[in-house]
Amino acid sequence: MKKTAIITGASRGIGYAIARQLGKDGFNVVLVATGSKEKNIEAIEKLEKEGITVFYIQADVSKSEDRLKIVEQTVSHFNRIDVLVNNAGVAPLVRADLLEMSEESFDRVININTKSNMFLTQAVSKQMIKQEPIENRKGVIVNISSCSSVVSSTSRGEYCVSKAGISMLTTLYADRLASEGILVHEVRPGVIATDMTSKVQEKYDKLISDGLFPIARWGKPEDVANAVSALVSDKFLYTTGNYIDVDGGFHIKRL
Q1: Which is it for the CA torsion 227, 233, 238, 241, positive or negative?
Q2: Residue 199 CB neighbours (<10 A)
Q3: Please, which residues have CB within 8 angstroms of residue 244's CB and are 6 or more apart in sequence?
Q4: How many whole angstroms separate alpha carbon 85 and alpha carbon 4?
Q5: For residues 52 and 40, what is the distance between their CA atoms, to the nearest angstrom?
Q6: Residues 139-194: pLDDT tens digits?
Q7: Which of 38, 99, 210, 219 shows a CA-CA span of 20 to 30 A to 127?
Q8: Rounded to the nearest 5 degrees, what angle is found at the Cα of 53, between the Cα atoms of 52 and 58?
Q9: pLDDT digit string (tens) for 143-157?
């Protein structure tokens, strides 16, 4: 039976790379993004030309009704959900000092990055629990958080808090769902070349050249996608609640 993977924030960057890799791995892929299908038709057609079965859902994961729509439409189209990759997320609109951060910015980032993760995972988990297991499990959930879940950036504190929350959600859901045959993992990207980081390219170019990262290069979306591919394979059947740093060794404490 061909398995199905939902990837949120999948129209570009890390999400798109994950969708492409899982499609190459043999999954049906459900691309979830806020833009219309017409807006993202080129990205969809690229995947289809590679022989990947794609289903597109336009949805805003911060809205309860859209989260339910994602589950309902996926099950209607493919009959089951085997993988959920919670990738959708945003950075603050303005980088502001912690003492100047607005409540509006905090609420926006937490709502999209953390609350949406909590409740989409809840909805998908309930569907997975109903399903017959494949390869001794009913599903796998992978949360894309960030090195910012544990690294302080005082000019974007709301982002750090939102990603730390995702790390705890990984732990909570891994604990709750293990007995249901559902595994939960987390991937923590570092500095990855995407639209989000392009705005601060000079800053990170300098940090890389100064030797802050043991692997002295920008990460690629494909680096993250490969980690997700491994976690949703049948190679990690006795592992849950863990995380992988995809950060060029940035997490290593050095003297």
Answers
A1: positive
A2: 10
A3: 185, 186, 187, 188, 227, 231
A4: 11
A5: 16
A6: 999 999 999 999 999 999 999 999 999 999 999 999 999 999 999 999 999 999 88
A7: 38
A8: 115
A9: 999 999 999 999 999
Q: Sign (positive/negative) of CA torsion 95, 97, 98, 99? A: negative
Kindly report the three-state secondary structure assignment for every residue of the chain: CCCEEEEECCCCHHHHHHHHHHHHCCCEEEEEECCCCCCCHHHHHHHHHCCCCEEEEECCCCCHHHHHHHHHHHHHHHCCCCEEEECCCCCCCCCCCCCCCCHHHHHHHHHHHHHHHHHHHHHHHHHHHHCCCECCECEEEEEECCHHHCCCCCCCHHHHHHHHHHHHHHHHHHHHHHHHCEEEEEEEECCECCHHHHCCHHHHHHHHHCCCCCCCCCECHHHHHHHHHHHCCCCCCCCCCCEEEECCCCCCCCC
| pTM, rounded to two decimals | 0.96
| Burial class of residue 97 in the structure, from the number of CB atoms within 10 Å of its CB (0-12 exposed, 13-18 middle, 19+ buried) | exposed
Instruction: Identify the residue whose tokens are 């303005």.
Output: 94
Residue with tokens 């926006």: 108
CA-to-CA distance for 174 and 182, rounded, in angstroms?
8
Looking at this protein, which amino acid is placed at residue 170?
T
The rounded distance, in Å, linking the Cα atoms of 113 and 254 is 30
**Amino acid at residue number 99:** L
Give the position of tokens 């940090």.
207
Active-site positions read 159
